[in-house]
Design a protein that fits this description.
With 284 residues, this protein is an alpha/beta fold. 36% of the residues lie in helices and 20% in strands. The protein folds into two domains: 169 residues, 3-Layer(aba) Sandwich (Rossmann fold), CATH 3.40.50.620; 94 residues, 2-Layer Sandwich (Pantoate--beta-alanine Ligase, Chain: A,domain 2), CATH 3.30.1300.10. The strands form two sheets. Strands 1-4-3-2-5-6 form a six-stranded parallel beta sheet, sandwiched between helices. The protein has a three-stranded antiparallel beta sheet with strand order 7-8-9. Helix 7 links the parallel strand 5 and strand 6. Helix 6 packs across helix 7 and helix 9 runs antiparallel to helix 10. The radius of gyration is 19 Å and the shape is globular. It binds pantoate.
């Protein structure tokens, strides 16, 4: 496994890779979810590139950029075990030199949910992912369903900017108790870890109501809200029952829909989602 930092090193190493090339962009502090993306890329592509870059432009001013967990040595050994061929670890100066002034924004899809709760977040995500795509020039790029809106926004950007890249969205990997894997789970103490299962429980209760025939989106949102508010360590930021393609809030669930939420467990902000409904999505 080759490890590079500068753009010219990356380009030289990328030029020698057998194609097709699969790409797994990450912010490091890797967990089983990231490794599932790398393994899927390895199954589907001749070479796999991963990037590790804690992207400062996607963090808001009061957010956790300075304390975001980092462990490069551990990340590199995990990527090696997942048979990644090339790892790019750019510095902030490589990605954002002092003269940097160009941004990529996706308009409608970023207005609600995470976009509303974290102003500017998706501008940072789409800008860095566009730069990563331009540098790595992968044939396929792999993202997790846990960040459902991010996946939708990146699919839209890829289509709108004509990147010749297939976006592959892979299932959320969960702990045995249902907690979605996230680098931010490292912030949780043992009590908070238990409390954090409330996201999965709330989504499960709403999905089982849907499976029993409930189609009222407000009722599904209320079911999730009630489960979250019953957990003393949890503070709900939002719950949503939205159209899967447009991410607009629904009144009635008639097709494929996204149940999602953002919840503070103590000081740690966690997100999770379930997809419900059967009809084929425009994104598939
Ligand atoms: O999902 C993440 O880890 C980040 O948002 C990404 C896609 C690597 C961009 O910084």
């Amino acid at each position: 496994m080759k490890i590079v930092t500068t753009l010219s090193e990356l380009r030289a190493a990328r030029a020698g890779l057998p194609e097709p090339v699969g790409f797994v962009p990450t912010m490091g502090y890797l967990h089983a979810g990231h490794l599932s993306l790398a393994r899927r890329a390895k199954e589907e592509c001749a070479s796999v590139v991963a990037s590790i870059f804690v992207n400062p432009t996607q963090f808001g001013s009061g957010e956790d950029l300075s304390k975001y967990p980092r462990d490069l040595a551990r990340d590199l050994s995990l990527l090696e075990s997942a048979v990644v061929d090339l790892v790019w670890t750019p510095t902030p100066e490589v990605m954002y030199p002092p003269t940097f002034q160009t941004w990529v924004t996706v308009e409608e899809l970023t207005k609600g949910l995470e976009g509303a709760a974290r102003p500017g977040h998706f501008r940072g995500v789409t800008t860095v992912v566009a730069k990563l795509f331009n540098a790595v020039q992968p044939h396929k790029a792999y993202f997790g369903q846990k960040d459902a809106q991010q996946a939708a926004v990146i699919c839209q950007m890829t289509k709108d900017l004509d990147f010749p890249i297939e976006i592959v969205v892979c299932p959320t990997v969960r702990e045995a108790d249902g907690l979605a894997m996230s680098s931010r789970n490292a912030y949780l103490n043992p009590d908070e870890c238990m409390a954090a299962t409330v996201l999965f429980r709330a989504l499960s209760v709403a999905k089982s109501a849907y499976d029993k025939g409930e189609r009222g989106a407000e009722i599904l949102r209320r079911i999730m809200t009630e489960t979250i508010t019953a957990e003393p360590l949890a503070k709900l930021q939002y719950v949503s029952c939205a159209d899967y393609d447009t991410l607009q809030e629904l009144e009635t669930v008639a097709g494929k829909a996204l149940l999602s939420m953002a919840v503070f467990i103590g000081k740690t902000r966690l997100i999770d989602n379930f997809v419900i409904g059967e009809t084929v999505s425009l994104r598939e």
